[in-house]
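Intended use. Records like the one below are meant for learning the mapping from a protein sequence to its folded structure. Do not use them to infer anything beyond what is encoded.
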Amino acid sequence: MLRNGFINNDKQKTINNYILFFCLLLISLITSYALANGNKIIAFGALGLFCGIYVILNALNFLKFGLSIVLILSLSVNGLKRLTETGFPLGTLVDLTCSLLLLVVLIGTKFNKQKIVIDSFGSILLFYAFYNILQVFNPKANSILSWFHHIRVIFTITSVYFITVGIIKSIKDVEFFLRLIIILNLILAFYGIYQELYGFLPYETKWIYSTNQYSLLYTFGKWRKFSFLSGPMIFGILMAIIGVLCLILSFGEKSKRFKIFYIFSGTVMLWAMFYTSTRTAYVLLPAGILFFAILTLKKNILIICGILLVALTFVIVAPTNNPNLYIFKTAFKPKDDASFLVRKHNQAFIRPYIQSNPFGLGLGSVGFSAAVYAPNSLLSSFPPDSEMVKVAIDLGWLGLFFYCMVWFTLLKHGIENYFSVKDSKIKNYYSAFTCVILLYLTSNYPQEAVQMESMVIISIIAGIMTKLKYLDNQNKETL
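Structure written out for the chain above:
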């Protein structure tokens, strides 16, 4: 029978071991030969192929392992590309792993005569994905390659959500993925702090200058840190929302050991956040504190959050010569921010296009995808500087409405379930996860925050939120 993976028996394990041994032997020979002849692309490609086969074989029996690999790859793929200096499509490994895991989950539910939970959020998510698929027929679309590039992301996001819903069977499963998310982000935070204290490694400096990243990463006389991620923007946003998540979890944690762990992790992440010079991330910090205080309305939480907000206010108004604190202060004075004024001007320019195209101009009609796949298109050089603006251009104001409905439904579930569940631990999880969703949605307005690195985490959290209400007040190990 299927339990947490595919058919699990001794014969299947023996076959897997033989296949793994043969692949390891073959790929070791290929890698050694390629490195001896100086061909790094073939060498890293062979290693990537071996990792892919290993993931596939283990994912057949251990779905938690497979989803963990997806999470780890999503957070490290850009760092690996910079390190290996190859164009090997590591992101494709994420897509393939998601496809396999989703297939195994679907087969598993059929064998066990179970159904994947599809609530109102799952339904609107599927509808939004289908709307994106229909964009292939948009007569105003620029490139089928651009559409395919975006559909891959939509597929992965949707798959990770339903895989999570299929995998989560107990509170222990929730705790496993929650702590894995925190540990991985803690590693990112430590490396970002390392970059601040000791500078970039040679391969990172080479990447900065070879890809013309200098003007984006060197601002206000200092380097913006990006850790293993694609850039300082997504690094700063992740540090802000996961840092706030940790601090909220610490309020409801009864174990002293884990309370210290959450406070320590949150503090380190918020420390690393300051080195990204991402002003959107700075705004998310007080927003998260305020929302948590309003949601819970508990006296001790209100007092602590009030003290933190007063301290933040003091930092904002106090004079300083520290460049990190100076940039932090400018985040709360948008009218004095030149980039904010440029974004307002760009939004005024693009508004007529959005209003006159209810179905949009097609996926990838603006931003990076347009510059790569349709460089001669109308808006190939237009910077949306906002995920919501980008969605409105690509999918039209109708698509933006569906996009907002996805987030609204998830927030509604989080708030309603926070007040309806009885278990204190689950209630604390709902308050923390709902806050994360709100902060991530908020970051979508001033930034193009929907990237693989962040959305895999958000999709896992959304899947956990769907299953938590079924675990309320259950003392069993599994459903």
